[in-house]
Amino acid sequence: MNPVDATVPGRVRPRRLRHGALMRAMVRETRLHPSQLIMPHFVLPTDEGREPIASMPGIERMGRTELLRRIEADAELGVRNVLIFGLAAEGEKDPHGTASSHAEGAVPRAVQEIKKHFGDDLLVITDVCLCAYTDHGHCGFLDEHGEVLNDPSLAQLAAMAVAHAQAGADVVAPSDMMDGRVAALRDALDAAGCETTAILSYSVKYASAYYGPFRDAADSAPGKGDRQGYQMDVANVQEAVREALLDVEEGADMLMVKPALAYLDVIRAVKQATLLPLAAYNVSGEYSAVKAAAERGWLDEGRIVRENLLAMSRAGADLLITYHARQALEEGWL
Ligand code: PBG
Ligand code: ZN
C-alpha cells in the first residue's frame, strides 16, 4: 500500500475538521464546564454593607446579607464553588493577625451562614493568610528587622484554618507561602477532628504585580517592604515544581498556580510532575486588565474570557479560579 503523499496539493486538508460548528464541537480537544469554576468573594465582618472596588469593576465587598443573596443568584447560573476572603473589623488588626482565628470573624460567620443556607449544594473554600489581619500587612509575623518569620507564623495560620473548618468550610486554601504550612495545617485540622476538610495549597505563588487590585479589595497591602522574601521569584519554574512536590509530601489535596496567564508554562510543568487536581488562579490584575480594555471597547470581553480560560485549561489546569465566573455563565461565554 502506498503511503499518502502529503506533498500532493489538497490531499491532506486539516480544514475539513473546521467546517461547521458541529464538526468543530465534535473534535474540540478542551472543554470548559461550570463545575470547574470557582468564584472569589470578599466578605465584610458585618451583616449589611456593599462596597464597590474601584480597580475591580463588577466586584464588591459584601456584608453577609448581600453575600448570601449573591451566592444564591450565582448558584442558579451554575456557580457552585466559592472562595471566601475576609476583611478585618475596624481596629482589629495587630502584629500577629490574631483576629484571623476568631470564631466570630468575617470568614467563620459568613461560612456558617452559607452552610446553614446551602448545605452540600455549595462548595466553600476559604483563603488562609494573615495579611488582611496584621497591622503591618505581611502574611506572617515580623522580627525586629521587618523580616517575615516562618515557623512562629505557622500556629496562627493553623488556628485560622481550624476556625474556618469548624465553621463548615469544605476546603481551606493557605496563601501565605510559609515553608511547612501545609503539614502544620493538616496536623492541626486532624487534631481538631477536621480530618475531612481538604487543603488546596497555593503551592506556587509568585511575587507578582498582578495582585495590585486585590490588595485594595482585601485591604492587605504591606505597609513596608514587599513579599519577595516569601513569594516566588517570577523568573523561576524549577522551583515551582519543587514547591508543588513538597506540598504533595506534606499532605495537600489540591495544588494551585498563581497567577495564571503569565505562568502557563508553570501550570504545565506542575501538572506533569504531580497527580493532584490543579487549580489556576486568574488573579485580580488579570481580571482588571481585561475589564479595562473591554470598557474602552478595545477587546471583546466574552471572547477574551473564553480564550483565557481555555488557555489555562489546555496548559493543564483542572480548576479555574476567576472573578469572571458569574459573568461567564450569565452571558454564556463558555
Ligand atoms: C493573600 C492573597 C493575595 C491574593 C490571594 N491571597 C494577595 C497577595 O499575596 O498579596 C491575590 C489574589 C488576586 O490578586 O486576585 N495572601
Ligand atoms: Zn497574605
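^ PBG complex. The chain has one domain: 33-330. The chain has a mean pLDDT of 97.
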